[in-house]
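Students often ask why we bother encoding 3D structure as a string. The short answer is that it lets us treat folding as translation between two languages. Here is a chain of 161 residues written in the first language.
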Amino acid sequence: LYGHLPGPRRAGLRPHTGRHGAPPVAVRAGGRIASAVMPNADELLVDIAAKVESEHTNQMPLTVVVHGAVITGRLAPEAMWRQRVAEVLRDSDRLVPFADTFMAAPEGSGPQQTDPPAYLHFHVARILQGQVGIPETGGMYRIAIKDVSAWTMGDLSYSDQ
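And here it is in the second language, the structure alphabet:
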């Protein structure tokens, strides 16, 4: 995998394939493991996430690959995503104590937000596995932008045709 990618070798890394089909990782001299994911977030993806935040829209369809998993759905602003997760938690007798955690304002958010987004907040999202999307109705996912290895515009779905 790393034979044609010069970056890890220049950084003093040697390739190492994980066991049992696990994704490959890079191992530094001395046995320390380094991330196989790119250390810098894709600036275009960061700009898209910032636009979703500034426009307060939840209509942006996106599909990403994260650690080999394909996740497809629509992006939502973080505050909207947190509110929806809190609503779901409030509907559960066992999980209601956690609802307030999601309603707390995220650090650095609000009108004065200056830092670029570090996370994508998906709603009505599915993990694509075989010919099904999990969950069928869509879920709520928070994904670190730096962990995204590939992405495309649009919400992918399967068809029996």
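Translate back mentally: The chain has four helices and eight strands. Keep this in mind for the problem set.
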